[in-house]
Amino acid sequence: MPRLAVSLEFTKELGALARPVRRDAAVAVRRFLHNSPAGPTPERVRNARDPRVFTLRLSDRHRGVVLRQRDVYWLVAILPDAEAWTYAQRHRFTINPAIGVMEVWDAEALERVEPALRRSSAGSTRRLYGHICDTDLLSIGIDAQLLPLLRLMSTDAHLTAVEPLLPESQFAPLSTLAQGGSLAEAWRELDGCRCVLADVIDTEDLATALLRSPGKAAFAADRIELDRILTVPDWCTFLYPPQHTYSNWETYEQPALITGGAGTGKTIIALHRAAHLAKHGTGPVLLATFSQVLVNELAAKLDMIIDDEVLRKRVEVTNVDRLAYRIVAEHEGRPPTLVGDVAKLWQEAAGSRFGAAFLLREWEQVILSQNLRSLEEYLAAERPGRGTQLPPELKTNVWRAVEHVVGQLRASGRRTLLQLVSEAADLLGQATGDMLGDQAPGREPYRHVVVDEAQDLHPAQWRLLRAAVPPGPNDLFVVGDPHQRMFDTRAALAGMGIPVRRFHLKISHRLPHEILSFGVRLRGGGPVDGLAEGISEMYGYRSLQHGPRPMVRGYVSLDAEITGLVAHVGEWLADGVPPNQVAVAARTVELVRTARAALRAAGIEVKVTMLHGMKGLEFRRVAVIGVADGIVPAPEQLTPATEDPTARAHDLQRERGLLYVACTRANELLYVSYSGRASPFLPT
């Protein structure tokens, strides 16, 4: 019986085939795995650049390309007959001699590049890698057959031109050296391309190299495992090196923080970390996020990763507010009563000096954030992120206004969600202790807490999560991106008793370069604060794939814009894109209703939602409409500059973040429209 591994590309190509072809191919692979007489037979490829390459007939007109070494077979691709033969002839496969991972090369394309490079660099004496000897390049895993090509390069543009043809484990260190980095820095980049350390690397050992490459290959020991690889979403099985490393790390001695831009796989890491802790941890696991919609998404995805019912029950998936609600309800013996809208109370408390919005934000962002209990504490407290300076007499006035609102809520027996969270944190206590041995009401017996979308949690929610798990190895594992913040929270975890060790992701595996670049320019690319001490920047994010440029369309009227939307979405569906892979987003409720009604009138049923509703989701194609001046940013969501210029700046960044999140939900095609004058956020 062969030892069969399946590549990520094979599963993607198989999933794109028509259902009958997909079914026949899956049956053929099963038969091959079990060495059935009816199964396909490996066929040699003439003029192949790699003699280990064979093909397998998997359906009437499709073949699998397979790399073979003794009893090990790696299914690399499935393509129509002619394309499969061409692929098999033009590619070669190597094992990186420095880190032992698999590398796939389009050797024919690289051969065609050489004459163009030679002509381009003929008039220049400068060489991009002239200061680095062959021995040093070979020492960081650079392939010997690539060296002649590197010696022709004279500018960064030459390396950029061949980037799509190079394995990431080759491009990453070369890019660092091209930017003036040292060999040590190049080694650090190369180190990010592996997830398993190896003392000895055998460049002829295919099986071991495949095991070291979980983003490229997955072994199927039997039919059940094979069917799972071929049917579940790719992210359930294939993890890129940093994703695999961070989610399967045996022990984090202190809380871990994983940050990264859109499409870098933060949520996938959180899910796989929860699954790892369910299997290897020391007790119950909490997987938490900030909204119930995301809870439902996370729970459904976790069900696909963990197919063992016993292990699955070890992970509770919830949002922080529901956790707080349960803790307080258990403590008080009855469900707490929540207040929906407190705007009227703040209007009553507002005076001539401060408006209701200012007071509400001061309460949430300063008083509740720092858990201030008295006027004395408030007078002594810093007010980070608040631009208006308050002398003691004005702080006293603010405190009295807050006391008025809190008193009114107390008298009516109602609480806001943030109040509830703060009370739940107090109930758990500052020092949790061994909660498994303490079954008092409200004590949550978690040994591990994994947090997704961390940038949108309030400091009070962080205090609750810190109190919900005893300090110790593998206690808190946090993922988030300050640039995708949708609410005005800027919590530095170290200031709340969570001193994190930070890791950063820089490669977007979901977004094509064109959408990622558009999103970065739209977001502004500037630094933001939150989660870790200091600031986070978007510099260095990149994608390994390319696609169409985002379409930005301006219209003379809203009616024309909606007509354009219906036409574009109709074309997408006619192209064969499933309706559940299309989404439409807008900033206002009115625009959402208008777009939904127009699409339904045309017989089109796709997801239509507010910008907020796109959080945590992904689609093949996304249309973001109404990105016009006066709508984005939303004027009513901006603090007047005369009241608090710092708060207004934060408001503008939050609005940018909302648009950035919606636009980066598209992993294939993005369409942006406006009527009248374009939003100032749109890149020019």
CATH-defined architecture of the largest domain: 3-Layer(aba) Sandwich
| The CATH H-level homologous superfamily of the largest domain | P-loop containing nucleotide triphosphate hydrolases
Main beta sheet? 6 strands, mixed
The rounded distance between the terminal residues' Cα atoms is 59 Å
Radius of gyration: 28 Å
- The side-by-side strand order for the widest beta sheet comes to 2-3-4-5-1-8
Share of helical residues: 40-55%
Q: How would you describe the shape?
A: globular
Strand content: 15-25%
Secondary-structure-derived class = alpha/beta
Could you give the count of β-strands? Answer: 25
CATH class descriptor name of the largest domain: Alpha Beta
Keywords:
684 residues; alpha/beta; Rossmann fold; 17% strand; nucleotide-binding; DNA binding; UvrD-like_ATP-bd; helicase; 3'-5' DNA helicase activity
List the helices and strands and how they pair.
Layout: E1 3-7, H1 8-15, H2 19-33, E2 43-44, E3 53-57, E4 62-69, E5 72-80, H3 81-90, E6 91-95, E7 102-106, H4 107-121, H5 134-139, H6 147-150, H7 156-162, H8 168-178, H9 183-191, H10 206-211, E8 217-220, H11 223-231, H12 234-237, H13 241-248, E9 256-260, H14 266-280, E10 285-289, H15 292-305, H16 309-312, E11 315-319, H17 320-332, E12 337-338, H18 343-349, H19 356-367, H20 375-380, H21 392-412, E13 414-415, H22 417-428, E14 448-451, H23 459-467, E15 476-480, E16 501-505, E17 507-508, H24 513-523, E18 528-530, E19 532-536, E20 542-543, E21 551-555, H25 558-574, E22 582-586, H26 589-601, E23 607-610, E24 619-624, H27 645-663, E25 666-675
Parallel strand pairs: 1-5, 9-15, 9-16, 10-11, 10-14, 12-13, 14-15, 17-20, 21-25, 22-23, 22-24, 24-25
Antiparallel strand pairs: 1-8, 2-3, 3-4, 4-5, 6-7, 18-19
Helix pairs in contact: 8-9, 13-14, 14-15, 17-22, 18-19, 18-21, 22-23, 24-27, 25-26
